[in-house]
Design a protein that fits this description.
DNA polymerase, domain 1, 3-stranded antiparallel sheet, hpI Integrase, Chain A, mainly alpha, 15 helices
Length: 326
């Protein structure tokens, strides 16, 4: 990890993050999420245990690099629950955010006990995760998806690029980070190789619409200001730099609104949901194939798409031979 990323962290946290990176091969996004959670956790503990003496000090300014192994060994299960209460009441964290923090703490303390041997007893063994109610994925219908593509302004200078982005989301179901990291030399005919979650290489198959949109964009792409390394990336910003996630998020929301939809929930991730749902509803894709397409490690993650087809359920009930008995 870079020095900028580890400043103001306890040594045990630095060791843990390095372990995640070098041994476990976790992605930069995952490592950053762990760092954010543990930084908040130790800042809270210093406040909770009365170790912050400057009452005017902002929470984000609290230094935690002085936390040593002795401090770590004194952490109890009740401290962990106090932290989760703080994240809910003071930080407004929902069940998903708190569940992620529980996962972070469990992984961290497991490392402290099993790898670095700093603690003998693991306080997270009895730590329960908040119960998460399964949420139905938000997605566009087939008609809304077609309308979104057709409503995009062809006179816009970024039309070909933006159309390519929306097309790839709606057809391939790739993650935002995967889309931003696409390299041209990884496109071979109808096969695209990307680096997915956990730095795992994954194959994405491109249909005719995706291939057309990619080559239409490449035909007009301006990259004369980009250096050789930047030109390797398929999608470039207006400044001819590899496009970043925030730019994609903004343009997706802009085009969704322009199509007449006012739901701000239609983020790039919801377009990924849309691709998965359309494949499941209209493409007769089995759950195992869908798992592979989406790059899900656990099939339970994919199974949310088996519960969204209300029309099919309605048709099944109406097809019962007793449906019309009076």
């Amino acid at each position: 990890m870079s020095e900028a990323k580890i400043i103001n962290l306890p040594q045990c946290v630095i060791d843990f993050l390095n372990y995640l990176e070098t041994i476990k091969g976790k992605s930069n996004n995952t490592i950053e999420a762990y760092k954010v959670d543990l930084t908040m956790f130790f800042r809270f503990l210093k406040v909770y245990k009365g170790l912050v003496f400057d009452k005017n000090l902002e929470f984000e300014e609290i230094q935690i690099n002085d936390i040593d192994n002795s401090f770590i060994r004194k952490i109890k299960l009740t401290d962990l629950y106090a932290f989760l209460s703080f994240t809910e009441k003071q930080r407004g964290n929902g069940t998903h955010a708190r569940a992620r923090k529980v996962a972070t703490l469990k992984s961290f303390f497991k490392f402290l006990q099993g790898k670095s041997k700093i603690i003998d007893d693991n306080p997270t063994l009895e730590l329960e995760s908040p119960k998460i109610n399964k949420r139905q994925p938000v997605y566009l219908t087939l008609d809304e998806s077609v309308n979104l593509l057709h409503s995009m302004n062809k006179e816009n200078k970024n039309f070909e690029r933006d159309y390519c982005i929306i097309t790839l989301f709606l057809n391939c179901g790739m993650r935002l980070s995967e889309l931003c990291s696409i390299k041209i030399d990884k496109i071979k005919g109808d096969i695209l190789t990307i680096i997915g979650k956990g730095n795992k290489e994954r194959t994405v198959y491109l249909n005719a619409a995706c291939i057309r949109s990619i080559y239409a964009y490449l035909a007009v792409r301006e990259d004369f200001k980009a250096n050789d390394d930047e030109k390797k990336y398929l999608l470039l910003s207006s400044r001819q730099k590899p496009i970043n996630k925030r730019t994609v998020e903004v343009l997706v929301k802009k085009h969704v609104r322009s199509s007449g939809m006012t739901n701000d929930k239609y983020t790039p991730h919801k377009l990924r949901h849309t691709a998965a749902t359309l494949m499941y509803k209209h493409g007769n894709v089995d759950i195992r194939s869908l798992q592979s397409i989406l790059g899900h490690e656990n099939i339970a993650t994919t199974q949310i798409y088996t519960h969204v087809d209300n029309d099919t359920l309605r048709d099944a009930v109406n097809s019962n031979p007793l449906a019309n008995i009076k």
